[in-house]
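Comment thread on ticket #2218

A.B. wrote:
> Attaching the input chain for the structure job we discussed in standup.
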Amino acid sequence: MSSALITGITGMVGSHLVDFLLENTDWDIYGFCRWNDNFENIDHLFDKINNKERLHLVYGDLNDYVSLFTALRDTAPDYVFHLAAQSYPKTSFNAPLETLQTNIIGTANLLEAIRSIQIDPVIHVCASSEVFGRVSYDQLPIKEDCTFHPASPYAISKVGTDLLGRYYGEAYNMKVITTRMFTHTGPRRGDVFAESSFAKQIAMIEAGIQKPIIKVGNLDSLRTWADVRDAVRAYYMLVTINPLSGEYYNIGGNYTCSVGQMLEFLISQSAQNDIKVEVESERLRPIDADLQIPDTTKFREHTGWEPKITFEDTMKDLLRYWRNKVKNEKKFMVR
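C.D. wrote:
> Ran it. Output below, let me know if you need it in another format.
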């Protein structure tokens, strides 16, 4: 029986990935996480964790090499999904050193530990579409060979992550494959991201917790949207369909619209007819990567993957997720 180690299992993507693997494989799954992580995204899996039914948590930190070495030595996974990161671009402007340390040095720690133990898993290193940063219209859609022009400390850290993955694949013949996943969202999306913040605010307005004013940042930014559940299916296919050492792929959805148009759709799903929109300066980034439209031909041709979940269904599910949270919990910060 195969096994997989997922770093960042408690995040949106990690939690959906473990859901997918439990349903679609017979693998044993090890989730690498910090002892003080928020486990809300995997609380529906506590019975499996408590009963050690295919799902096991391993505690450590990307910045603690010994914990990584021990986790990898003890689990010897066949597959490694490296999803853990300081993943909030806006936060990275306030905490650039932590972002660089965790995302670059943390990734190097993981890959060095794998190399030192001399195990040979298929390794997915999750970079980001943010590596491309500010692109011009004549570079759209963005191909894999587009020049990097990162627009935040987070994006810079993901350039390092991306290059490390490719380096270890090429230099040491390790089975490392790197992805640049474009905007992906859905249930469990953190409220520091625009679409999740908007859905949460709508749910709070409907519940009478917030005045009918949605606080927003840059609404002109163009995004190609994908569902997180399509994303994790892509990651599974990445490591199981002829994985090629050192390869790198753009992955993303097939529906493009501005952040403002996305917000209009979310508002259209509410019976609240007095909602207004107000730009809040603190929600604006110093620099914005405002044209995030991918060319995913390379990945689709290699794996046969196609997105299945529509933009509309993704946004409806995200809004439903927040309505349920607001209904069942007492208070939230407006952010």
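A.B. wrote:
> Thanks. Noting for the ticket: The first helix runs from residue 12 to 24.
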